[in-house]
Structures are given as C-alpha cells and as structure tokens.
Amino acid sequence: MEKKHLKDFDILLKGQLTVNLPITVLMIFVFFGLAEFTDFSFFRNVTISFIFGWISWGVLVRNWILWAKKNDVSDERLLKIGKPGLLVWSIHTIETVTKKNKYPWI
What we know:
Blueprint: H1 8-37, H2 42-70, H3 75-82, H4 91-98
Helix pairs in contact: 1-2, 1-3
C-alpha cells in the first residue's frame, strides 16, 4: 500500500493536537490544582507546572517525530514545520529522536 503524501498543515495539526494541546491542558490543571490544594506561592506553582509540561513535551514530541518519520517526512521539513509551531527548536531535537533513539529533554 502506498503512503499518501502529507501536507504541511496535516503535520502541524497533528503536532498541535498531540503535543501542544495536551501539554497546555496539563500545565493549567497542575497550576490550578496546586493553587487550590496547596499553599505554594504563585512562582512555585508556575515552576512545578513548567516541569510537568517539559517532561510531557519530551515524551509527546518524540511520538510526533516518530509518527512523522514513519510517514516519510524529512528532518528538514519537520524542522521547518515544527519550529514556528513551537514543537521543536532545532534539528538537534529531531536527530536526538531519530538517530540516537532518545527522548529530547533539552
């Protein structure tokens, strides 16, 4: 079966719905959960929410990159789409997943 050629919009939409949306929702829930059930400061709530978001990003963006590679999207195209979509920041992030088979924590 021949793979269909994905449009840039489809790749970006998949990334937004599977990476950025869940992370945003998670960070909001963590922040307000901490605000409601703890006496932590605003700064501590933001910091803890950021840490949860960062860890989640490492896992979810890896899945998105692997999905894109499975659909024959080149590293350069993935960077071109992912950078303005706030999914990846450099080619290093993509290469960490594709060549080193690791999670891109930084």
